Each structure stands twice: as structure tokens, then as C-alpha cells.
Amino acid sequence: MDLLTFRIATAADIPALIELVTSAYRGDASRAGWTTEADILDGQRVDAEAITADLNRPRSVILLAEQAGILMACCHIADEDGHGYFGMFAVNPQAQGGGVGKQVMHHAEQFVATQWRLPTMQMTVIDCREELIAFYERRGYVRTGIKKPFPYGDERFGIPKRDDLQFEILEKPLGAVA
Fold it and tell me: What is the pTM of this model?
């Protein structure tokens, strides 16, 4: 496997980001990987307006991971209330399970710890996604027990196929990030 290179996204990357994130989470293409949400959500996962807002926020970046010039993964990191926030994490479904995601998470954690000097990283995960939560737990994240309602009726987050969705906040201390 070629080494991943990392860079910060710009507005020119928005179409590729939408394509990558959609392929990792929605529709039949997402079923090639294990992160699919196709059984619980339809519709869009992200749009150009949301990505633009993330790019324009202070202390907010979208990291891109490329391999031989090809976009393989991305994540959004931000300073939210004195914690790092990790979101919009997507790995090309064909590359899932090969260590790309682990490298992206590590890079994001290092960035938040060293550039912004924040003590923890938080994320929100749909709480019924047990396999995904287990993946994050193996990377040092813990369930906080703090739940947030799913934004039913706001199609920017997708069209739910279930009526019991909610988010749970996971957290990881970053003091040990090397």
C-alpha cells in the first residue's frame, strides 16, 4: 500500500468530498464497505453548503488523505467548546478494512492535540451503530452516555428509515497521542 499523504481541503475539493462521503454511507455503493448507513438512512449525507460552512469556520479544517494523488478518506475536525470534534469521517468503501481509517484518525488526533492543544476529541455516532462504536472503542474512545436527538425532519442529515435514531457522544483523551 502506498503511503497516505494529508492535506487540508479547499473549496475546490467540495465535489470530491460529497462523492466520497456519499459513497461511504449512502446507497448501494456504500455496501461495498462496512460503514454503510443505507439500512437506517436514505438521502444525502452531506452537501456543499455544509462543507463550505466547515471550511469557513475558525479552528475548523477538513483533512484529506490521498494515496498516489487519489482521495481515499476525509474527516472534519474542529475546536468545539474546548474539545476537538471529529466528524464527516469517510473512507472509500473499496479501501475500508485496510488501515486507512486508523491512519486518518491518528493524524486528526495529532493535529487537534498539537495545533490546537485540546485535551480531548469528541464525536457523535448514531447509537444503534454498534459495530462502528466498537471500532472507535478499539481506538480509545469511550461512550459518555450523553445522548443527543437525531434531527428528524431535517433532510440535510438524511431521511431516516427508523424512528428510534439518536446520537451518542464518544470521547477520547488526547494526552497520549504520539
Answer: 0.89
